[in-house]
């Protein structure tokens, strides 16, 4: 006999669901509204606010910048994060315990503080170009996630497999690419996606580092909102959402979302 | 093809901790030598040094005259079989076995042929396309064995290859390993903590303790003539009785144990007898009798257990607590007085520590 759910539990679950999904429905609704102001439920149905995103030059440029920064920062973070996670896991016994904590410490620092300190110490100090500052800032932001996710998949890797390959004549570096990487592939993909999403949605670090002439999509969205209260805000949000959901769907397809719970 | 291995005066550390101390070991061409010892005594460390995954603090390792000591691991050409199999999870059985050949630039048909022949030899030709995750423990270890053998290495090393298998399979697999090793005549070092396993398949066994080899000898000699008290205890000599020679009369030596117990020993049976020595005997080598007139160690019998072939008694004597066996034909009661008579053929004499 299947256990009967308590009505209160069902009610609570529905409430949580509405709480989670409600805002999304409102944003999507507002985005397709055929009005010149933000409203929900939508009056009429129109895709013109989506067209408007691409009609506004600043949005076109910032979408491109956001994508470039996200891709670059993700690649740099993987380039640093994969060897770092490897070293942290491979030599776990020999290394002091606090070292792996050190690598994920930036997660604990409020992003605003991180952004401000980057502005003061990197952007001003070295007079670094905005784009470079953004890539560096995002790399620092996402590196802990990359290391965490890849370490999780390395934790179940048996390093004697690597030694087996070396003993059979495969040099260590070649072994890293032919034996180790294929076995943590899903972890690398998950890290890639998580890093990409974190970067493309970031506001708190970017807001310090963007400047005249160069901005990212979420920052441009904020700027736009200060002047206009039209449904473009909602349609850009939907665009970001769709991008995020698409990327998450790929994660779900490759290894499930369980890694996020770890 | 196969080559002798020589480990000379190796000392090894993990950080500051000394793990191996001045260890030397010669393995002749085609010989199988086991390293036998409790967990943590340095067996794996020894293999890792030879394989090149660890650098010795001092000492040298040579294989067939070639100095391996500073050679990178991937150039050493040694077949390794690991306890946890260490198969490549993302490669099929055939690709696992072919991996070493690929590194040696054996390609195409030549590789396929050698892989298939090897898989056939270990009885896995029907599983060539499987992934390791879909194999049983015994099958995995056969793949690991095939992978190490197919490159025809001059030296094979096994690190507790059977300890993850169940008892019955362990016995079958060790015979199989020995047959393959014999057929190829490959010099081998085999690590185990299982005495029966080591004794059954080895030409010689090195009994290790705390980073040193306590004795290296044939299984027969180790079992019957241990060289020291540690090895004697390790191979099951329950009774080690310190004795002092009190009289020498031609071929007859009289010695005294604690509590004034006197026993006589024939030189023709024991060879040389030093003034201070330890008499070592298993329970089987110490016979319980209620005939108190014979020469032996006076004892009060304690707990009696049934062994099938004999009764075993825990005995209280002036020379300490001893374990001795008595015949099935005569059941003796706990608390009764008896004599424990050493059986010369089953006793051995050790130098004191
Ligand atoms: N990576 C390591 N770091 C520090 N100590 C180690 C390491 N590996 C092994 N040891 C220590 O070295 C000693 C010998 O280990 P090992 O050779 O693995 O023993 P065995 O294989 O005989 O069980 C043990 O005391 C063990 O704790
Ligand atoms: Mg070991």
TrEMBL record, chain A:
GO terms for biological process: transmembrane transport. It comes from Devosia oryzisoli. This is ABC transporter permease. It is found in: Cell inner membrane; Cell membrane. One of its GO terms (cellular component) is plasma membrane. Keywords: Cell inner membrane, Cell membrane, Membrane, Transmembrane, Transmembrane helix, Transport. Belongs to the binding-protein-dependent transport system permease family. Its main location: membrane. It is a multi-pass membrane protein. The chain crosses the membrane at residues 12-32, 67-88, 95-116, 128-147, 231-251. Residues 63-251 form the ABC transmembrane type-1 domain.
From TrEMBL, chain B:
One of its GO terms (molecular function) is ATP hydrolysis activity. It comes from the Bacteria. SMART domains: AAA (SM00382). Gene3D superfamilies: 2.40.50.100, P-loop containing nucleotide triphosphate hydrolases (3.40.50.300). Transmembrane segments: none annotated. Keywords: ATP-binding, Nucleotide-binding, Transport. Residues 5-235 form the ABC transporter domain. GO terms for biological process: quaternary ammonium group transport. Belongs to the ABC transporter superfamily. This is ABC transporter ATP-binding protein.
